[in-house]
């Protein structure tokens, strides 16, 4: 990763390409396993080995779905079952969330999906549930932030009580605040100009707040910043890999590049 800190010229074999980055999304976006804001019914969302003795469930919003390509690969390599149940803008919190299409009402579709996910976990009793989301409340002092983090504790507790043997929440990935493919296209001979300071794109205070909320639910908090940043900076191109498809979502290729970090979270195969 360190070579990305001072990268000058854009690699000719960049993947995904700058032109295709925006459309480079996880497979769950097209098979009914990452729902849009109005959808509430999941499709057939079983991946890996359907008959495996170990089950992992992925839940959350698009910042959870972005890890699917990595988990899908690790599932195939380790012969376990992966259930992916994510929904746009539906963070793993029971706090009231405005509907993204009609902000005048609550996001009832998210609450309904949460109930569905908890029921599915009760049915599956998985060895591990992995959750993640974008962290919307960056002003840590405002009242909605307190409710949002308290809701994280509540939802993760529900998953544990429903029968998940372990619940882990992946910390949010860097929020760079600018469209990275566009930035790289403007600086093809000085790509590192698009890199971002880790302190700005992943505030430490936010990590502390999320860690406390997760641990209050007796779940495990797994920070991801160190997977994507080094020496205080977050490179946007590493080797031939474009790391971000917009201002905050990692590309499927970046997720797969990081898959080794996820392997350590997963339950051992059944004996």
Overview of this protein structure:
Helices cover 34% and strands 14% of the residues. It contains ten helices and eleven strands. It has helices spanning 62-65, 68-78, 108-124, 143-162, 180-186, 198-201, 204-216, 225-228, 252-257, 259-263, and strands at 34-35, 46-48, 55-60, 81-87, 128-132, 167-170, 196-197, 220-222, 233-234, 237-238, 241-242. The strands form three sheets. Strands 1, 2, 3, 4, 5, 6 and 8 form a seven-stranded mixed β-sheet that branches. A two-stranded antiparallel sheet has the order 7-9. The protein has a two-stranded antiparallel sheet with strand order 10-11. Helix 4 (143-162) links the parallel strand 5 and strand 6. Helix 3 runs parallel beside helix 4 and helix 4 (143-162) runs parallel beside helix 7. The protein is globular, with a radius of gyration of 18 Å. The two termini are 36 Å apart.
Low-confidence stretches: none
Number of helices: 10
* Assembly form of the protein: single chain
**What amount of the residues lies in strands?**
5-15%
Question: How many beta-strand elements?
Answer: 11
Average pLDDT level: 91
User: How do the helices and strands follow one another from N- to C-terminus?
Assistant: EEEHHEHEHEHEHHEHEEEHH
Largest sheet: 7 strands, mixed
What gap, in angstroms, lies between the N and C termini?
A: 36 Å
Anisotropy-based shape: globular
The percent range for helix content is 25-40%
Tell me the Rg in angstroms: 18 Å
